Recover the amino acids of this structure.
C-alpha cells in the first residue's frame, strides 16, 4: 500500500503556473517600459523578434505594449490559473486512479503488484529455484517497469509475502517480513524472496498471448496490461488503496468458496446474491475472527458498499481453585495491530475505564496467537469483554468499498458483477490460449507433413539438395517437385540424418495423427462456448483443490449492535434509598443483616437534621426506575445510573440526577424491566383521586420527564402501584380509615387524565397510601411510634369506590398517626426505616394478627424524637448452605413481585415490586 502514498518528486512534475496579465502589469510597469525604450542599447533580442514578423507583445489597459518574449526567443502564453490547475489536477488524479491506487477487476492487482510478479517471472525467480535478494528484485522492477520509489515497491512485495495480510500469499519471503505485532520488515538488502506456486497460477499461460502487452514507461520493453489470473485474485486476496477522490477496500475470501461461486455463476448466469451466499457466505480474513451477522455482508455484495463488524475470538478459562477466571484471545480482527491493541487495553485499564483486569501478557508463539487477560476476583467475564469490545479494537469494523477498474474506468461493483467480469476475462484468456495452441498445432502439423514427404522421397530430396547451388535453389526445386512451401523446405534442410530411419517415420505419422486430434479439439472448443466454460470450471477446481484450505473466519448469525452502557455493567441487586429531602443512592445488599423483632437495628445511612428515608427498595442494575413526582410527572432512569454510595452516606441530591423543578419531589418509585400492555399502574392522590393507566403508555422517556397524571389544583400524587385484572385496591388515610374495592371499578385512561374519586376524605385528612391485593393476606399498618398489627384482608368489606372506608386501627396520641400500610403474608419480612436512618428487619409472623379496631403491638423501639418514616416488604427464603467464603454464605437478594408465591408458604397476596429474599449478612456490626 505504500505505493499509494508515494509522492516523491520522481513521480510527477508540475509546471510553474503561467503568469497572468495582472502579474505582468506589476512586473513591467509603464515607467520601467519607457526607461527600456530610452536605452540606446535596447534589448539585444528585440530587433530580431521585430524582424521575424512574430508579435510577442500585449497591450495593457493604458495601451502600453508589454513584451512577453523570454531571453531564449520563446514566448509566454497567458492562461487562466484556475482552469490550468483544474486540468492539471484532473490529469494527476486520473493517473493515480488508473496507474497506481486501484486494482483491475480481472486480476485484482495494482500496477506495482503486477509488475513485481511479472519481473520475478521474467527473471525466473520461481518456486523451483532458490530465493533471490529482494533488493535485486526491487531494482529490476524499478529499472524496467515501475519508475517510482524503491520503498513503494518493496512495501508492496512485503505485503504479498505476509500470511496475515494475504489470504493466499503470492511471494515466498525468506527473512524478516514483518509481524502482526507491527514489527517492520528488515531492509530489502537483508531479505530474499521468490514467487509462490499460487503466483505461478496468476502468470500461467502468459507466454501464449492470452493478454495484451503494452510498452513500459520508456517504451524500451513490453509488459502485460493484465495477468491471466487463473483464480479470482481480487476476491481471494482482496485489495485496498486510496486514490484521489475515491478509495477501495475489498475484503479477502476463501479460495474454495470463491471457486464454487464462479462455478455456480457459470452454470446459472442469472444466479441471485442469496444463492451465491449459500456457497460464498462472506469474507474469510487471514487473521480469523468472528463476523457479527450477515446484514453487512449482504449489503456489500448487493451494493458494493457495506460495513462488516469483526470480533476477536475469545474464550474464558478458570484459574486454579479460587474461582478466578481469565480471558484468552486467540484471533483478532483483520488489519489490527496486535502490539497497539495490547497498548490500548493497558491504557484503558490504567485510566480506570475498564475495570476487573489484574494482568495481561502475550503468550503467542509459532503455534498461534494467545493473549491472556487475568481477571480480578469477582469480575464478570462478559462485562469485561463487552468493555473491551466497546473501547478497544477487540471489535473492529471493516468498511467494504468494492471499487475496481473496468476497462480502465473505476466502478463500484456488486459481487455478481465482479464474478461476471472475472468469468469474461477467463473466457477471453482461454479463447486466446486455444487460438494460440490451434495456430501452433496447425503450423507444427504443416511442417511434419513436409518432413513426412521428405522421408518418403528421401533419395530424390537428397539429390535435389546436393545438386542445388544454395538453400534458396533447393527450396525452390522442392516446391516445384513436391509442392513444399518455404517453411517446409527450411525444416527439411535442417532435418538430421537420424530422422531417415523407419522408426522416425512412424513417429512422424503418430505425431501428425495426435496433432490432428488436438486441432479438432481446439476447433470444437472454440465453436462451443459451453465447452469453453467447462474447461474454465475444471481448471478452477484443480487450482482450488491444490491451494484451498479451511475457512478461518467464523460468521455469527447474531448481528452486531452498538453495545449499550448496561452491557458494560455487571447485573447485580442494589438497595436503593430515597430520603424525604430528596437524596438518592444505591449500595450493595451486603450492607444489611436480619434481626429479631424488637432489635435496635444498624445504622443504615447518615442523614442531616429533619431528613428521613421515604423509599427503600431492591432492584437490578439493569432495571428501570420510574420516579413519579408529587406534581404528576414521571422520570425514567436505569438503576446503574443512580449514584452509588456507602452504607453511611446519605447519597446525592435527586435534583442532580433528575431535572426536577422547584418544589417537585419524588412521591412514588416503580421498578421494572419491561412495560407490558396487559399490566396497569394505579395512581392515588392526596385528595383521594385514583387513576388506572396501561404501563405501555410510559415506555418512553425524555430528559425533562413526561406527564404521568393530570392533577387538579391543590392536589398532589401520593402513591403509584402496579395492578392486574381482578385484583383489589386498598386505600388508607392517615386518620386510620381504609376502603377496599375491585380494580374494575376504575376504567383505564390515558396518561394526561385526572382519574376518579377513590375515597372520600374528611377535612384535614389526606390519603396515606394505596395497596394492591388479590383478597388474601393481611393488611399491616404501622404508626409513627413503631406500633403495628396485622389484620386479614378478608375482614375488610368490599365497597364501591368513593366511600369513606372503615377503621383499620384504633388511633391514640401515644401511637401517633398512621404512617404506613402494607399487604403481607407469612412469607414476608419487613424493612422498617426511621427518620433518623435506623433500619430494622423483622418477620411479619412476629407481628401479632389482630382485629380491625385494635391498637396493635410495638414493632420497633423508637427514640424519643424518632419516628417511623418508611416500610419495605421482602420475601424471606431459607438460607443456602454455608460456603468457604463467609460473605458467600448468605442468601442472594433479588427483585420479585409480591404476587409470586413463596416456596415455603403458598399465600399469594398480590401487590407491588418489593425487596426479595433475605439480605446478606453484614460483617461489620
Amino acid at each position: 500500500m505504500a505505493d499509494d502514498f508515494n509522492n516523491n518528486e520522481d513521480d510527477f512534475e508540475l509546471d510553474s503556473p503561467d503568469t497572468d496579465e495582472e502579474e505582468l502589469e506589476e512586473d513591467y510597469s509603464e515607467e520601467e517600459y519607457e526607461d527600456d525604450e530610452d536605452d540606446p542599447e535596447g534589448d539585444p533580442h528585440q530587433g530580431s523578434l521585430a524582424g521575424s514578423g512574430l508579435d510577442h507583445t500585449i497591450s495593457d489597459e493604458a495601451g502600453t505594449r508589454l513584451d512577453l518574449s523570454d531571453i531564449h526567443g520563446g514566448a509566454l502564453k497567458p492562461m487562466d490559473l484556475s482552469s490550468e490547475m483544474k486540468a492539471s489536477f484532473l490529469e494527476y488524479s486520473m493517473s493515480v486512479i488508473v496507474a497506481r491506487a486501484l486494482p483491475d477487476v480481472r486480476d485484482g492487482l495494482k500496477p506495482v503488484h503486477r509488475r513485481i510478479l511479472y519481473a520475478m517471472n521474467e527473471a525466473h525467480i520461481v518456486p523451483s529455484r532458490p530465493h533471490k535478494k529482494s533488493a535485486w528484485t526491487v531494482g529490476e522492477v524499478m529499472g524496467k517497469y515501475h519508475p517510482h520509489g524503491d520503498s513503494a515497491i518493496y512495501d508492496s512485495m512485503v505485503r504479498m509475502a505476509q500470511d496475515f495480510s494475504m489470504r493466499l500469499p503470492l511471494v515466498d519471503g525468506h527473512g524478516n517480513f514483518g509481524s502482526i505485532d507491527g514489527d517492520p520488515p528488515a531492509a530489502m538488502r537483508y531479505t530474499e524472496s521468490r514467487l509462490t506456486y499460487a503466483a505461478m497460477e496468476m502468470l500461467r499461460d502468459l507466454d501464449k498471448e492470452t493478454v495484451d502487452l503494452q510498452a513500459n514507461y520508456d517504451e524500451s520493453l513490453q509488459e502485460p496490461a493484465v495477468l491471466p489470473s487463473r483464480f479470482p485474485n481480487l476476491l481471494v486476496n482482496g485489495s485496498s488503496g486510496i486514490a484521489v477522490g475515491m478509495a477501495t477496500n475489498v475484503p479477502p475470501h476463501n479460495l474454495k468458496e470463491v471457486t464454487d461461486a464462479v462455478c455456480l455463476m457459470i452454470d446459472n448466469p442469472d444466479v441471485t446474491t442469496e444463492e451465491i451466499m449459500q456457497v460464498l457466505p462472506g469474507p474469510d480474513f487471514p487473521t480469523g475472527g468472528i463476523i457479527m451477522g450477515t446484514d453487512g455482508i449482504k449489503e456489500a455484495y448487493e451494493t458494493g458498499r457495506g460495513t462488516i463488524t469483526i470480533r476477536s475470538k475469545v474464550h474464558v478459562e478458570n484459574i486454579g481453585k479460587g474461582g478466578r477466571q481469565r480471558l484468552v484471545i486467540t484471533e483478532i480482527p483483520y488489519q489490527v495491530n496486535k502490539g497497539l491493541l495490547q497498548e490500548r487495553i493497558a491504557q484503558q485499564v490504567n485510566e480506570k475505564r475498564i475495570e476487573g483486569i489484574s494482568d495481561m501478557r502475550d503468550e503467542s508463539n509459532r503455534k498461534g496467537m494467545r493473549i491472556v487477560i487475568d481477571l480480578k476476583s469477582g469480575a464478570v467475564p462478559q462485562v469485561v469483554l463487552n468493555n473491551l469490545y466497546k473501547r478497544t479494537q477487540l471489535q473492529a469494523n471493516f468498511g467494504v468499498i468494492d471499487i475496481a477498474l473496468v476497462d480502465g474506468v473505476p466502478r463500484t461493483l456488486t459481487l455478481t458483477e465482479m464474478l461476471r467480469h472475472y468469468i469474461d476475462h477467463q473466457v477471453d484468456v482461454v479463447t486466446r490460449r486455444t487460438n494460440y495452441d490451434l495456430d501452433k498445432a496447425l503450423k507444427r502439423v504443416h511442417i511434419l507433413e513436409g518432413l513426412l514427404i521428405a522421408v518418403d522421397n528421401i533419395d530424390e530430396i537428397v539429390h535435389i539438395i546436393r545438386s542445388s547451388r544454395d538453400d534458396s535453389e533447393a527450396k525452390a526445386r522442392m516446391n516445384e517437385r513436391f509442392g513444399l512451401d518455404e517453411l517446409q523446405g527450411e525444416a527439411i534442410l535442417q532435418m538430421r540424418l537420424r530422422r531417415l530411419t523407419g522408426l522416425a517415420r512412424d513417429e512422424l505419422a503418430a505425431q501428425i495423427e495426435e496433432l490432428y486430434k488436438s486441432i479438432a479439439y481446439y476447433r470444437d472448443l472454440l465453436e462451443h462456448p459451453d465447452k469453453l466454460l467447462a474447461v474454465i470450471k475444471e481448471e478452477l477446481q484443480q487450482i482450488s483443490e491444490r491451494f484451498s484450505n479451511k475457512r478461518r473466519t467464523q460468521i455469527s448469525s447474531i448481528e452486531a449492535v452498538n453495545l449499550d452502557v448496561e452491557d458494560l455493567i455487571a447485573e447485580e441487586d442494589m438497595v436503593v434509598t430515597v430520603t424525604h429531602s430528596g437524596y438518592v443512592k444505591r449500595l450493595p445488599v451486603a450492607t444489611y443483616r436480619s434481626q429479631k423483632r424488637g432489635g435496635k437495628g444498624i445504622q443504615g445511612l447518615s442523614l442531616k437534621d429533619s431528613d428521613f428515608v421515604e423509599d427503600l427498595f431492591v432492584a437490578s442494575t439493569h432495571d428501570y426506575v420510574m420516579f413519579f413526582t408529587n406534581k404528576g410527572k414521571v422520570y425514567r432512569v436505569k438503576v446503574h445510573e443512580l449514584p452509588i454510595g456507602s452504607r453511611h452516606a446519605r447519597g446525592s441530591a435527586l435534583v442532580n440526577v433528575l431535572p426536577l423543578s422547584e418544589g417537585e419531589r419524588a412521591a412514588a418509585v416503580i421498578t421494572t424491566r419491561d412495560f407490558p400492555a396487559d399490566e396497569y399502574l394505579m395512581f392515588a392522590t392526596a385528595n383521594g383521586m385514583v387513576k388506572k393507566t396501561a404501563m405501555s403508555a410510559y415506555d418512553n422517556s425524555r430528559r425533562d420527564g413526561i406527564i404521568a397524571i393530570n392533577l387538579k389544583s391543590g392536589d398532589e400524587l401520593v402513591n403509584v402501584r402496579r395492578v392486574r385484572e381482578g385484583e383489589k385496591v386498598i386505600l388508607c388515610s392517615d386518620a386510620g380509615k381504609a376502603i377496599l374495592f375491585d380494580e374494575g371499578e376504575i376504567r383505564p385512561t390515558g396518561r394526561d387524565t385526572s382519574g376518579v374519586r377513590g375515597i372520600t376524605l374528611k377535612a384535614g385528612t389526606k390519603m396515606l397510601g394505596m395497596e394492591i391485593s388479590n383478597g388474601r393476606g393481611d393488611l399491616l399498618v404501622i404508626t409513627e411510634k413503631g406500633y403495628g398489627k396485622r389484620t386479614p384482608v378478608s375482614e375488610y368489606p368490599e365497597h364501591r369506590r368513593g366511600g369513606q372506608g372503615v377503621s383499620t386501627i384504633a388511633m391514640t396520641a401515644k401511637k401517633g398517626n398512621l404512617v404506613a400500610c402494607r399487604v403481607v403474608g407469612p412469607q414476608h419480612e419487613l424493612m422498617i426505616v426511621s427518620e433518623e436512618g435506623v433500619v430494622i428487619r423483622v418477620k411479619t409472623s412476629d407481628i401479632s394478627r389482630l382485629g380491625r379496631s385494635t391498637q396493635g403491638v410495638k414493632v420497633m423501639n423508637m427514640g424519643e424524637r424518632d419516628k417511623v418514616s418508611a416500610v419495605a416488604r421482602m420475601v424471606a427464603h431459607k438460607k443456602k448452605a454455608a460456603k468457604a467464603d463467609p460473605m458467600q454464605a448468605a442468601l442472594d437478594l433479588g427483585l420479585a413481585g409480591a404476587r409470586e408465591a413463596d416456596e415455603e408458604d403458598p399465600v399469594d397476596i398480590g401487590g407491588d415490586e418489593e425487596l426479595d429474599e433475605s439480605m446478606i449478612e453484614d460483617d461489620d456490626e
